Hints:
10 helices, mainly alpha, single chain
Amino acid sequence: MGRTKTFDPAEVVRAARAVFWTRGFESASLPELQEATGLSASSIYHSFGSKRGLFDAAVASYLDEVARPRWQPLTAPQVQPAALVDYLVGLRTALRSSGTLPADHGCLLLNTASAPLAGDDTVARAVGAYCAELRAAISRGVDAARPELDPAARACLADACTGQVVAAFTLIRVDAEQAARCLDAALTLVDPEPAG
């Protein structure tokens, strides 16, 4: 009869997620993961199969607990006209909040896109799916914010805003001011004449 788990898997994954987010998959050592999660190496392997299995769980957790909640107003059944501006302003605030994981380390998935692990087909698909989901959410925000534009112009605007968000996440680790300017540019594109 197998032993009963005496830990909360979601809490373990969150703790590991912080290590992977801070250090990256390759640099996150098993001792660091053990210290963060409170699990032995054998418990990590028994519960998640491997360090990679734990990383995959951390990515799923990142999407469900970090990325998608921020996009939620853009994916709601009825998207409000101000939803995209609110998202961009909120993201800018989050990235300027020094001492937080997003401000200090950007986006877990986009960081992975520039790491050796990105050569793995499963990881490449996960990063691609993340970017597509982000773009789809921003597109819905554009549609709500700028309904007067024709579909091609709205698609172009969604691509431009998505690019600025990706750039901000990429730059935040080295140049917070430039990252903020990327989001300011996206805000100007969406709302060229903000009220008052």
